[in-house]
Specification:
Blueprint lengths: L1 H29 L3 E6 L7 E10 L9 E10 L6 E5 L11 H6 L2 E5 L21 H15 L7 E6 L1 H12 L6 E5 L10 H9 L3 H16 L1 H15 L8 H18 L14 H11 L7 H6 L1 H11 L38 H13 L4 E5 L18 E5 L14 H15 L8
Parallel strand pairs: 4-5, 4-6, 6-7, 8-9
Antiparallel strand pairs: 1-2, 2-3, 3-5
Helix pairs in contact: 3-4, 6-8, 6-9
Length: about 425
């Protein structure tokens, strides 16, 4: 009889989950501005949907037109917290964030305006409406819609540029979520962030920093030997260079090298020495920064990102004082910017918003969890700790841009994070350190 009892329980569970999925679909049908189709549910979830949500081009003047923003909904239970993931770029598939799994929550993963399929028609496309006020209004509209379905606790989270979006979303709409968890998210205060220079001049050991510089200088000094080989490589890889000249792209790749090395978790022992020769220096530099990042395809893919960096979010440039007489395509002064807009669209940077957020966070930014890696270049401009707010900061030792994650925290860090989440969300997290 035990197997019969188990079978009854199993069918009861299936009936319950089927009823919940049906109830969710009915609720989705009732939401205005939402088109949805069912997709395969991730493991542990009852249902999942690809969403296309109608958004005004200008939230302050809806008559100017609209576009549809892509998002992915993963449903676990109506009585669990909901995580809204504030992507910084394209989101072409459904994925579950580690934070969502940790709290066993529902998730809405939102593609960023002006990326992927979340683009206005060409007839109304205008970069004027790619600003953080409009971006966060998109998220607020989604939050407002889906609170009709999920009326419990809400969190927001994002990684890198998505983490920046998490921060700005909380600034514009402080009541939308109960907890914000930005990962590896810089808060840049200028078009040329000088704190990046300080970081690159002090991170690691002097010997490691000098080894990186030696690679850069070796490659630049041997450009006549290197450039023909790189041109063949670019041709074979289908890379084109119209926005930047080929020599500009080459020099940018050289200047980018230390930034990418620390951001991506390079190992000092892997840096070739002068004795290893030009080929070894070039191989390591290209595997770290590379030419493709400066090709036409990359410029097109990240055009919206560069526009945001150049207009509101700030970015970084490259110091050139160590390369006097070695740069031929790029200037020594001013320092070349890392912002590359297709067509060299004029940029007028307005730092008023980031300065306001920078001043707001230390006194108003309660219930934030900041996750950073202390060896990541972007930690140079991360939000710094403040004793005036109820928030938690992690600068994870030896972790880079891709490693600064909950899964890589030590036992004490993980316990601190879980304690904060349990307190602020008023839930019990079953997975303990």
């Amino acid at each position: 009889m035990r197997w019969m009892y188990g079978l009854i329980l199993w069918f009861s569970f299936l009936s319950l989950t089927n009823a919940q999925a049906q109830s969710l679909e009915y609720a989705l049908f009732e939401l205005p501005d939402v088109i949805f189709k069912e997709i395969e549910a991730p493991a542990g979830y009852e249902a999942a949907y690809e969403l296309h949500i109608k958004q005004p081009l200008d939230h302050n003047a809806p008559e100017k037109g609209h576009f549809y923003q892509r998002a992915f909904l993963s449903h676990r239970s109506f009585d669990r917290p909901t995580v809204i993931c504030t992507e910084g770029y394209t989101r072409g598939r459904n994925r579950i964030y580690e934070l969502t799994n940790l709290i066993e929550g529902n998730q809405i993963d939102v593609e960023h305006r002006y990326f992927g399929t979340s683009m206005p028609d060409e007839s109304i496309f205008d970069y004027e409406y790619l600003n953080l006020e409009q971006v966060t209004a998109d998220l607020h509209h989604i939050n407002t819609l889906f609170r009709e379905i999920y009326d419990g606790k809400w969190l927001s989270t994002g990684i890198s540029k998505g983490g920046q979006t998490t921060i700005f979303y909380r600034y514009f709409y402080p009541e939308d979520v109960d907890v914000s968890v930005p990962y590896v998210a810089p808060l840049n205060l200028a078009l040329e962030e000088k704190r990046i220079y300080t970081f690159l001049d002090t991170v690691g050991t002097e010997a490691c920093r000098n080894a990186l510089l030696d690679v850069q200088r070796t490659v630049l000094k041997n450009r006549d030997e290197i450039l023909p080989k790189l041109e063949w490589y670019a041709k074979g890889s289908g890379l084109t260079f119209n926005y930047l000249s080929f020599e500009e792209a080459f020099e940018y790749a050289v200047l980018e090298y230390p930034f990418s090395f620390w951001q991506l978790g390079g190992k000092c022992e892997d840096i070739p020495s002068k004795a290893d020769g030009t080929a070894a220096a070039l191989d390591h530099l290209m595997s770290t920064s590379g030419l493709d990042f400066f090709s036409d395809a990359s410029m097109d893919a990240y055009a919206s990102h560069y526009y945001q960096a150049g207009s509101e979010m700030g970015y970084y440039s490259y110091e050139t004082e160590d390369f006097d007489g070695l740069l031929e395509a790029l200037p020594l002064d001013p320092n070349p910017s890392a912002i590359f807009m297709p067509g060299k669209l004029p940029k007028t940077f307005d730092g008023e918003l980031v300065s306001s957020v920078y001043e707001w966070l230390p006194v108003n930014g309660d219930r934030f969890i900041y996750i950073n890696g202390d060896s990541d270049t972007w930690s140079a401009t991360a939000v710094r700790p403040s004793e005036e707010v109820d928030a938690v900061w992690f600068f994870m030792e030896g972790k880079d841009h891709g490693q600064a994650r909950i899964r890589n925290m030590n036992k004490a860090e993980r316990a601190q994070l879980i304690e904060a989440l349990e307190k602020w969300l008023e839930i019990d997290i079953s997975v303990k350190p």
